[in-house]
Amino acid sequence: MEKYLEKFQELIVAYAPKAIVAIIIYVVGSYIINLILRAAKKIMTKREVDVTLQKFLVNLLNWSLKILLIITVIAKLGVETTSFAAILASAGLAIGLALQGSLGNFAGGVLIMLFKPFKVGDLIEAQGEIGVVKEIEIFTTKLTGLSNKEIIIPNGSLSNGNIVNYSSEGTRRVDLTFGVSYDADIKQTKEILMDVIISHPKVLKDPIPTVNVSELADSSVNFAVRPWCKTEDYWGVYFDITENTKIALDKAGIEIPYPHSVEIHKES
């Protein structure tokens, strides 16, 4: 028992200084990394680097510096870096297979930064989700959904799938359809619908809004109403025109058909 205690004391004496130095290196290194990241952010902001690219590069720099710091700490504890590198190399295949999805997501993040199908602040639709791009990280992209929920999409899936960017053009067309009775005057109805959309303060004059008969349906004549607006005004215009159209048609005495049920009585 005494021999084990002596060996334990020898180990403490031998490795305690190394452990203390390693801890100091880690603490100081972490502080320096934070300073470097702050400096990098300031430099990129000063040089007006795209916000999306800023966040991606800072994230990448953060991971790289932390990995370097961990290797330095391990080396200070007495583990030879050459041996450590050999261990990583021998385990490289297993790690690559285990992290296949993560590596794909990393590659997807690089592709997104290179081709820039969207940027932070854009409204996009991808992987069955719609939201405003909040942040593009190394492995994932974060969106803020329309109901203010956070949506996280892996970059691998995102870069390989279809992406609809609603913000890239700056304007959007609002597609609305209204049905009126067959007894209604087509010319009068078109004038009323056009008055509703051109009177809205957020509807653009260019491109010119249009109103056309789109379908002669079973119980209604359907009109395709197509105003344009800025991307950020889309839902406001959509809801306002829907409400104002109902009010205007009611005021003009034009009926909006609704489903009718027909009962058939068979005499015995």
Q: Topology of this protein?
A:
Blueprint: H1 2-46, H2 51-76, H3 81-90, H4 92-98, H5 100-115, E1 123-126, E2 129-136, E3 140-145, E4 150-154, H6 155-160, E5 163-165, E6 171-173, E7 176-180, H7 186-198, E8 210-216, E9 221-226, E10 228-230, H8 234-252
Antiparallel strand pairs: 1-2, 1-5, 2-3, 3-4, 6-10, 7-9, 8-9
Helix pairs in contact: 1-2, 7-8
Description of the molecule:
The protein is α+β, with helices and mostly antiparallel strands and 268 residues long. 53% of the residues lie in helices and 19% in strands. The strands form three sheets. The protein has a five-stranded antiparallel beta sheet. The chain has a three-stranded antiparallel beta sheet with strand order 7-9-8, with helices on one face. The chain has a two-stranded antiparallel ribbon with strand order 6-10. The longest helix has 45 residues, at 2-46.
